[in-house]
């Protein structure tokens, strides 16, 4: 829809049609399997319109018919459901020492999840483009082999991403002002689907909101628990990026520490916690790869379960520092839930009681614990990038029904975030 | 519209009409003086509809005609503007030792501003109801004497207010679970206009967003600078209260302090700052009334201007603690502006350079300073309560055009926040 001159009346009609297609799709996602009559009742659209929209969605292979049901008044109705087999959304994460790729179908069900080591922190952006492009091609090949069409692609980065999609500053990768989306679209030679990039914590909270155990929570904060600490903020039912897109830089929050003050990331990020609990194993300035963090987490959990006193004491101190950060988030935003992601989940038995204990000292008690562990693991940012693609479909950006068509959509590739 | 059974078709038509009336009103507020043709062009409504809506708004005395203009192509058009003289919105603040009342007209211009001492911190809620009711009656008398109709009333409290309007916890007044709005409506014997209550910092950021020097900023944080410290959050163009309505409890943020950790309010609220700068004048546990804070602020400013070394050194330390709190807010929310309200404005020459200096140490510099001083002074919370009344009018809740009619609107008095 970008760049073409259209008759304004035709444009309006097309927009209304796209909106209604999205409405029907969302209705089936939330309430399916359901009949055309159910959709008409739920959306307020008349039955003729619904029939026409459903026919189009069936043709585009976004919906499929799934049999009839006799458990109802009147004659049996044909039930409709999302056609999970027809489409796929790709989510990628690029980090200092790994790449993640996930694929989900239209209904959000996982299709694949890959992770591989990658020296993102030491290679050039151009080299990263090459590696990510190769990964995307392999994923697309797999998707096409399954007979699916690619709805779109999102790439999560652990840094500041501008609203126009440029990676402004990604310390873990040593990137400054890298227009990664455009470079991927070039390298993919006009992929035929939208490509966007975004901040990892923002995508992770999107994933939590769509796929997590607390899906649908309107006021939700997610803290990343991989190799860095960032926050994604859901406020009043939507992701809030701030005026520059840089919201959620939780790692920089000043917190009390021995010697005065420290940044929250340096005392309570996952890497910081493993450093504090296993101090002999790591020099302070040594960057911990994801694999190294994972090894150390296993060691911490093992020692904690064995009741090792020093381990439990240090975990407790770190938990209190994390609690100071979470108390800050909760005091400011009053979220229903704060979800600790990534490897925080492994440490949850020792972290959550302390964090929720500190939150309980506030003047107004809550009925359910605010701090919880994520069940999405390390895939959360990539899953969120894929979720964003699915959201775009529900905002009206539809594929045309042909599997992985090579269409001239290079302009569409820089989709608005 | 509450409680009455209506023909659904008529209800829909009435709702569309109310929405369009509000649209026209808002258009004139933002672009007036303007003609009917201007309104049609700006709103997309056709000219006949606009004429009809304008006639109704003229009849209700929300708009008035203001002469013609010849500076345009075609024949002179009659210009329309908000009828400032017809209406008034009342904002009240109840605090530990004072009451504030402000009145603004439909265009937001100030009509009156009163403040009087009141021992809110030591009298019962019932006594407060009596005092505030008496204040409201005096204000309404004054408004009616001017021939205006009262659009509504809001009351700002320095504490936690639930979404249904109950004052859950107001430490400064020793209130717990006080249904202040309902009690006022009772005491006023069905006032004939909506009454609501809300948190002072939330109202203050509303006032800043509508009336302040940075009006219209979509991502804005306000910090109260009276006798307590709280934050009001505007995110993506709207006030965000959090899931319980308790957002912005900035005073509880843990910050680094000598001896470990302190709450931001205890080191960097306005009363905390004056205590730190003039330690000999105040016992640590002595509650400072607004009048006492004002006296001490004057002393601090006087000494600072005279270049007193101890004063400047202590101001600088306090400024750095405030900066830690502001850095936290900015890192999390990425607002365009953080507005320091109340008496922070008097101390701005010594606070802002330090706060903005700390913010400038972040990885991505900004073009304009984020931290600024409010020009609204101590009236901000009450002004915001009045602004909320004006917002409600623009959301379709209209007065009927008769000055201070005694209408059976007791049900409407518990207006949704």
TrEMBL record, chains A, B:
GO terms for biological process: regulation of DNA-templated transcription. One of its GO terms (molecular function) is DNA binding. Pfam families: HTH_IclR (PF09339), ROK (PF00480). PANTHER family: BIFUNCTIONAL UDP-N-ACETYLGLUCOSAMINE 2-EPIMERASE_N-ACETYLMANNOSAMINE KINASE (PTHR18964:SF149), ROK (REPRESSOR, ORF, KINASE) FAMILY (PTHR18964). Belongs to the ROK (NagC/XylR) family. This is ROK family protein.
């Amino acid at each position: 829809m970008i760049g073409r001159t259209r008759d304004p009346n035709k444009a309006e009609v097309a927009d209304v049609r796209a909106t209604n297609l999205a409405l029907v799709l969302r209705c089936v996602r939330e309430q399916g399997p359901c009949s055309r009559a159910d959709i008409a009742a739920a959306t307020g659209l008349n039955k003729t319109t619904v029939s026409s929209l459903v026919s189009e969605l069936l043709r585009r292979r976004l919906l499929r018919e799934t049999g009839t049901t006799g458990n109802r008044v009147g004659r049996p109705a044909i039930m409709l459901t999302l056609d999970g087999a027809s489409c796929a959304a790709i989510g990628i994460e690029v980090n200092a020492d790994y790449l993640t790729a996930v694929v989900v179908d239209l209904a959000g069900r996982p299709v694949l999840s890959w992770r591989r080591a990658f020296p993102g922190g030491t290679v050039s952006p151009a080299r990263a483009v090459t590696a990510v492009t190769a990964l995307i091609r392999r994923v697309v090949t797999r998707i096409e082999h399954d007979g699916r069409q690619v709805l779109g692609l999102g790439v999560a980065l652990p840094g500041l991403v501008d609203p126009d999609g440029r990676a402004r500053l990604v310390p873990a990768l040593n990137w400054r002002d890298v227009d990664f989306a455009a470079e991927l679209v070039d390298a993919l030679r006009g992929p035929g689907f939208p490509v966007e990039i975004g901040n990892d914590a923002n995508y992770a909270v999107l994933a939590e909101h769509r796929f997590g155990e607390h899906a649908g929570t309107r006021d939700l904060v997610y803290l990343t628990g991989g190799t860095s600490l960032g926050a994604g903020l859901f406020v009043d039912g939507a992701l809030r990026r701030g005026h520059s897109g840089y919201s959620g830089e939780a790692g920089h929050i000043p917190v009390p520490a021995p010697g005065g003050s420290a940044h929250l990331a340096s005392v309570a990020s996952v890497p910081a916690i493993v450093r504090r609990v296993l101090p002999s194993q790591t020099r302070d300035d040594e960057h911990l790869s994801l694999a190294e963090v994972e090894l150390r987490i296993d060691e911490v959990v093992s020692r904690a379960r064995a009741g090792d006193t020093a381990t439990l004491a240090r975990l407790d101190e770190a938990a209190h520092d994390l609690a100071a950060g979470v108390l800050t988030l909760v005091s400011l935003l009053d979220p229903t839930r704060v979800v600790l992601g990534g490897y925080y989940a492994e440490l949850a038995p020792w972290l959550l009681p302390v964090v929720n204990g500190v939150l309980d000292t506030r003047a107004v008690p809550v009925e359910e614990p605010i701090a919880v562990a994520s069940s999405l693991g390390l895939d959360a940012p990539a899953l969120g990038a894929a979720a964003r693609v699915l959201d775009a479909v529900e905002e009206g950006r539809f594929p045309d029904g042909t599997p992985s068509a090579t269409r001239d959509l290079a302009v569409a590739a820089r989709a608005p975030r």
